[in-house]
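A quick aside before the break. I want you to see a complete sequence-to-structure record at least once, exactly as it would be stored in a machine-readable document. Don't worry about memorizing anything.
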Amino acid sequence: MSKDRNNKSQKNKNKKTKKKMKIWKKILLIMLLIILIAGGVFAYRVYKNGWGLSGMLATVVGHDENTKKNLGEFQVLLMGVSTDQAGVSLTDTIMIASYNPNSQRAVLVSVPRDSFTGTNVKRAKASDKINAIYNLTKDPTETVEAVNELTGLDLKYYAIVQTEALIELVDALGPIEYNVPIDMDYDDPTQDLHIHLDAGVQQIDGEKAEQLLRFRKNNDNTTFPSDYGDNDIGRMRNQREFLTAVVQQTAKLGNITKLGSILDIASRNLITNVDFNTLKDYLPYAVEFSTENLLTESLPGEVPDLSKTNGVSIFVVDEEETEQMIKELFFPEELTAQDGNTISGNTTNATGISSTSNSGTSNSKIKIEVLNGTSDGKILQQVVEKLKDEGYNVSRTGTTTATSKTVIANKNQVSETTINDIQETIGTGTVSNSNAGTSNKADVTVIIGKDYKY
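That is the input. The structure line, written in tokens, reads:
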């Protein structure tokens, strides 16, 4: 009898166990179904957001396919402050930075630190220089307003970066590969500043980064060569190009794991009015940015003779040239519409060159702008000579951020025959029908890359 009871008890246990197993199977199936549905929904949203790392990040932060379309161009004033002198906070590095997530186009414009912000050049004072404003007021919005006054822009955001931040960032990312433009040899015992860097490609750590960015001249008073941009022009170009290299390194996929360290460095060394929600909107798309889409320039102007400026060395920004440059860099769509470059059909554009063919037009009527994206000034000279030998009108030369590939930008609907001839003359070049470059007065912009061969 007890045996029968045991058998019944065991059967009941088995039934209960089977019921539990069925219930768990159902739960697991439901969970699996939920996971598959959620995964499918997530994958679909990633797909709608453009796939890749950018699409995934955009989905994670809650974006949909319309979010990016509604984002405007992000603009911020970057101010680099050296803290080597007690009680002094001169913003010796001032740059306007912008990024458009839809066009994946970015601009970096240096504002010379000695830019005059006073009212009377003849009575200039050191405090009239733009780099002194923050030191005097400790209010970054005052510098933002001064830059807006000089450029006609409407900047609202600022970011003040201390020297220590860049040193820590470079060390956190690992050494930055950079082509140091010249031998740098300078010592200032009063600031405990010692700069000793050899020209050429090398690995830059935090200590070397500080030397690189603070360099102005050598112990023998020599500075950057004129074909690179002498004195402060060269210094600003060197800063822009190194920051470009840092951006390239930061954007590498492997450095996502270092995001915590980067944010920690920023929180300790960055003063900004950019809120997290704004950054959150732009960051998913910024990971796809290529520095080949970065345009760099410096505000145009001149350094007047000291006899005309009360003995104070200042930089006077050229209002007309600055206005034109700002339009070209920040509002290219408006210029394109104004210049008639979007006209379709067999019509004539602003320069009088047929938009379907210019085979009957002499090369001398084709205005070419040549920008050097290498650190070798001889290359610029050689390319200019080649184009002039073919009868082309080289209307402007200059430098731009370092680039690996040569680009020939057809800015004014020049015929394919002429563009191919320019490409053959140079010996290389990827053709682009865009407004790359800095002058809408040119029909073609040639950006010389490191792929150019002598």
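Two observations worth writing down. Residues 85 and 213 are 16 Å apart (CA to CA). Residues 33-53, 336-361, 435-439 have pLDDT under 50 and may be disordered. We'll return to this after the break.
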